[in-house]
Design goal:
- The chain is an all-alpha fold.
Length: 78
Amino acid sequence: MNHLLVFEPWELIVFAVIFLLLFGGKKIPEMMKGLGKGVKSFKEGLNEVENEIKDATKDIKTDVKKETAKEDKSDSEK
């Protein structure tokens, strides 16, 4: 089993104590708030890109349908 990303409970406690000593109790909520805003902004950006891709594919599909309808119409007239 790969133990690179698995932490024991005592390791997490030591990490939390060191984190508190380095940044203090007042800075941690500010940092977490900033992290939350960053994650929210990132998700909004992903949603915007996804919506743009959906809109572009929808436009392409309608263009293809129009072109095939024109081709079918011109073929039937010949």
